[in-house]
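#help-structures

NK: newbie question. if I give both the sequence and a SMILES, will the prediction place the ligand too? trying with adenosine-5'-triphosphate
OV: yes, paste both and it writes out the complex. here, I ran yours:
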Amino acid sequence: MVLVHHDTPVPPPASPMRRWLWKFACALRGVLVGMQGQNSFYVHVPAAIVVCIVAAWLEVSLAEWLVLVLCITVVMTAELLNSALEHLARAVTREVHPEVRNALDIASGAVLVASLGACVVGVMVLVNHWAPVVGS
Ligand SMILES: Nc1ncnc2c1ncn2[C@@H]1O[C@H](COP(=O)(O)OP(=O)(O)OP(=O)(O)O)[C@@H](O)[C@H]1O
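OV: that's the protein plus ligand as C-alpha cells.
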C-alpha cells in the first residue's frame, strides 16, 4: 500500500508562516514514510492500542497514563529513527558493508531495548491494577 508519494523534493516556501506549515508537513510525511514497509509497526501499533484500552478499562491514574504514553512514544520514536537509518543506508550503498550492518543492527537494538523497557513498565502498571479487579 502506497501511503506517500516519493516525488521530487520541493523547495521551502519564503513566508515564515508557510515555512512552519511546510516543516510540519515534512515531519508528518516523515512519520508516514517511516512507517511504510516497517513490519514492526504492525506489532507495536496494535500493542499500544490494546494497552490503552486495558488501561482505560482498569482506570489507571494520571501518572500511570503519562508513563504508558511516554513508553509508547519512546518505542515509536526508536522505530522511526531505525527506519530513517535504513533509508539512509539504502541511499548510501546497496552493497554489503560491515559498518552498515553494525549501524542497522545497533538501530534495531535500540528498538529492542525501548520495547523491552516499555513491556516491563506496561506489564507492571497493568498487573498492579489487574490484581485487585480480578480478586474482587
Ligand atoms: N548493506 C548492508 N550491509 C551489511 N548488512 C546489511 C546491509 N543491509 C542490511 N544488512 C543487515 O540486514 C539486517 C536487516 O536489514 P534491514 O533492516 O534493511 O532489513 P529489514 O528486514 O527491512 O529490517 P526491519 O524489519 O527492521 O525493517 C540489518 O540489521 C543488517 O544486519
